[in-house]
Write a structure and sequence with these properties.
transcription; RNA_pol_sigma-70-like; mainly alpha; 75% helix; ECF-type sigma factor; transcription regulation; 208 residues; sigma factor; globular
Length: 208
């Protein structure tokens, strides 16, 4: 699969949260703002299933050998906890989670590639072809992130759409709710963002 094909095939996983669950999360966020720290644990339990489902999709898509869906969820939540984040509402929380997952994946990709490059490049491996394929995908992930950072400077909303859909695995309706735009606008923004990213990746090919 070529680098640009990734954006053609990127489809967010089907949303599984019920209206009751979303309402419960929103109420618990209010409790957090009122000083109920235990509410964070309750929120985590409510959203864990969806987080794990999204994490499974992301790990399969990015083929990161050093991270599992469970560890991705755990690292994401720990990153948020360390940042002492504050979410205004359920959609804001979803946006923060999507960003945190993105950075966890990027950090793991950098760590994996740095570790491998520190080893003897002439060491033979029975799975050398597989390893090269994995390395290429990790490098592509970093290239995509660099292109996304360039998109932020051009149009920050388009970059948010990519972050929420490509890294956060969110549905168009969810993205529209978070950004305060219509589904039609989300689709138009996604097309624009994908075209920009593909052109950037074509001009900045993955390093061999």
């Amino acid at each position: 699969m070529s680098t640009t094909d990734r954006f053609d095939d990127a489809e967010p996983p089907e949303a599984a949260s019920t209206g009751d669950t979303l309402a419960s999360v929103t109420r618990l966020l209010v409790d957090v703002e009122e000083g109920n720290d235990e509410a964070w644990n309750q929120i985590y339990n409510l959203v864990y299933h969806d987080l794990h489902r999204i994490a499974r999709s992301l790990v399969r898509q990015h083929v990161q050998p050093g991270i599992s869906p469970t560890s991705l969820v755990s690292e994401t939540w720990l990153r948020l906890a360390r940042s002492q984040f504050s979410a205004r509402c359920r959609s804001h929380l979803t946006s923060l989670i999507a960003r945190a997952m993105r950075f966890v994946l990027l950090d793991e990709a950098r760590r994996t590639l740095t570790t491998k490059r520190g080893n003897n490049p002439f060491t033979e491996s029975l799975s050398e072809t597989h390893e090269l394929a994995v390395d290429s995908q990790l490098e592509q992930l970093l290239e995509i992130n660099e292109a996304l950072e360039r998109l932020v400077r051009v149009d920050s909303r388009l970059a948010r759409v990519v972050e929420l859909r490509y890294f956060g695995g969110l549905e168009e309706e969810e993205i529209g709710e978070i950004l305060g735009i219509t589904v039609r606008t989300v689709r138009r923004d996604w097309r624009k963002a994908r075209a920009f990213l593909q052109s950037q990746l074509d001009n900045h090919p993955t390093h061999s």
